Model the fold of this input.
Amino acid sequence: MHRVAIVVQPGIRAFDLAVITEVWGPDRSDLGVPAFELRRCALTPGPIPLPGGLSLTPDRGLDWLAEADLVVVPALARPCDPTPEPVLAALRDAHARGIAVAALCAGAFILAEAGLLAGRRAVTHWSLAPALAGRHPAVQVTEAPLYVEDDGVWTSAGVASGIDLCLHLVREAHGSEAAAAIARSMVTGPFRTGDHAQYLDRPTPAADRTAEALAAVRAKALGRLHEALDVATLARWAGMSPRSFARHFAASTGTTPHKWLLGHRLDEARKLLERTDHPVPEVARRAGFASEVTFRQHFASYIGTSPRAYRAAATASGPPPIPADSVRNGS
Done:
């Protein structure tokens, strides 16, 4: 995904446009990030008005979508406003060509209007989910996740989850190191899985000590991913029963301890595959998987390819891996 197209039209949200531009726009080659070609594609030339008195000048027509590796659709400030049919046709054509298409927040309404979400899972801002489901009953609207993918079509929830989706798309195409470098540059968190909850219960002063204990447990676990961690162990660190710990953990993070551990172990494994020449069984051990077979199964299920194929793709597009004896403790 080196060539990224933004679909611009009157009324798109400036925040979504800024997120896309900040992730794929700057030259971060000095940080080891690939060079991207980001283009603003519109139906007609000339300045396009945006909310808040802003304007944007496109630099490509809609025909450039066919040359892109990724097409990203910002939301309209008024989600139910119609999108011109040539724009919808260009989105349909891009998807038919096998190009990944992603929408931020209420951009899901545009993809639904184009027919790209019919029969597929999709997410949008939780407050807009009923409207999306009502206007497009063929869409399988889910309110919980931060972002979802179905047959090459990505949708994300509100506001900050657009950053999460964009970083995830970088991670999928170019590896966790590139995504982490962009996240550091943006001063944002480098990894939130799509199954995080969109919103969490508001904490109360009485829950402060619990929140601090859970944060300490997560920090400790990240330093010991190579160990055989389970809910009972994490609960013991927090001074809670396993049942109480699992309940508080889900309320705090929006996911289960098991899924949280699995996501970070897979992220650690990807880093090891990208940066070292450790054999796959050693990568599995350092990332905390009980066996190579278990590691391969989870990796293929979540990443969509085998560890060896992932390493081959990563090393083909980046610097050679660091020798195994120069890396300690899987870091």
Observations:
- The longest helix spans residues 257-275.
- Residues 124 and 300 are 27 Å apart (CA to CA).
